[in-house]
Design brief:
- The protein has 547 residues and is an alpha/beta fold.
- Helices cover 27% and strands 21% of the residues.
- It folds into two domains: 118 residues, no CATH class; 386 residues, Rossmann fold.
- Helix 6 packs across helix 7, helix 8 packs parallel to helix 9 and helix 11 runs parallel beside helix 13.
- Strands 10, 11, 12, 13, 15, 17, 18 and 21 form an eight-stranded mixed sheet that branches. Strands 4-5-3-9 form a four-stranded antiparallel sheet, sandwiched between helices. A three-stranded antiparallel sheet has the order 2-6-7, with no helix packed on it.
- It is globular, with a radius of gyration of 23 Å.
- This is Family S53 protease.
- Keywords: Hydrolase, Protease.
Length: 547
Amino acid sequence: MRLHEHRDHVPSGFTNKGPAPGDTVLKLRIALKQTDITGLQDVLMDVSTPSSAHYGQHLSLEEVNRYVEPKPETIAIVNEWLSANGLTAKTLSPAGDWLGFQTTVSHANELFDTRFDTFVHDASGAESIRTLAYSIPASLKGHLDLVHPTITFTSPQRAVVSSPLKFKPTSRTLTADASAPSCDSTAVTPACLQALYGIPTALATASPNNITVTGYIGQYAQQADLKQFLIKYRSDLLNNTTFVLRTIDNGTNPQNASMAGVEADLDIQYTVGLANGIPVTFLSAGNSYRDGALDGFLDTVNYLLTQPTSVVTTSYGFNEEDISFDLADKLCNAYVALGALGTSVLFASGDGGVTGSQYNPLCINDVPTFPAGCPFITTVGATQNVNPETAAEFSSGGFSNYFAQPDYQKTAVSQYLTKLGTTRNGRFNESGRGFPDVSAAGRNFNIVYKGNTTTVSGTSCSSPTFASIVSLLNDRRIDAGKKPLGFLNPFLYNNTDALNDITSGSNYGCVPIISPGFPAMEGWDPVTGLGTPNFAKLVAAVDLLPN
């Protein structure tokens, strides 16, 4: 047996209750070594870089699978090990690189030379079965990437990147502006965003084009709330404009006001309400696995690989340090596969400034969020105010401790770090992938929730807003006989003039007096990224793209 993954200590916020009952059934996943994931990363960058001769030439699923599927010898060795231990595995991914099986705690302890314990999340009381270290047979080294869930500890209260209800209107509210008459002192509406960013109101015409909104941890989108929202804020849309429901992992979407989800309502209302008739799918993930939203992330990718979408927006995430590097790397590479198919993957950056996915002023060094730090997605931060827009203090941003800085952003990040100087030395990883990439308004959004109008804030307002704009850009490309934009970052970092640069404000820091957050500056910054969308300039840049 060889030690495979380990943690040095129990993560903060969790208490070990001791050994888990031996007869408890565990649902485990194993990730198999992929044939050539580095090769697929290279292909993604090639088809996503505007100057490349292959720009826009996205792959088919069969072509993606050739890079992702395990080699025959890997499959044979792993299956032999499973069979020898009386296990029957189910294939969980199109390429066969993820397998799932059930076994008891006592059997798992033997299989992985470990001890699974019961851990309690102190704040919520939720229990999970995990271990701090596990081993695999030497024969599986180089063939089995990881076992999950094992050393990953995700906090139930941090599963949602943005807690919209946490942020109520404060003294720092939107400023009235004659150029955006629909933005008053306390609320953002679709008309406000249309005026602010130049978003058109005309119905989209191209097909096929669609946008997917993901939903996890029991967040349900209400048709009735959406209808009221559209009557109030987009009466120009057809009365029957709605979304399509799809489910995974025994997900549901009950239409009962008492079960409405503020996050789900927000995400659906500002995609349907801004995307001007482009079909919107709400993908609701159930809790078939103990790990909740994180397993849902994996299964979302596997679903979208076989049911493609042009744009997917997610307003959920985790603190990077809570997830094992191997698992984070595996999920990040799953977004490589989606991007190679031509999907634009957007995530909210989080609402904790530099302190993580939610505000935690007691941290000492910066806490990056995940998947925000994955270099193969587009991460969206938040702004506030109208004239001028400034960085929202809750906008999570910083530098990954897991992922290196990608080439497409090295110049922009280097310029920022030079201007920043020694202000925050030692508190973040200067060579890490910087995030967010872009931003959009994120404070004081009007939504309809449980039949009533309420105001919410967070980067979960920003991601569906930016995603809707991307879907409208896709509408223009598809109408011209071209492909969807796919992975956005190489295009965005090559067209910074198409975004509104945000140069004022900063985000929360760890113990703010001792360690302030990052300030917004000219150019890219780890609060607002490259800036907010300017639709007319983005259209001009997109029209110059080939294919």
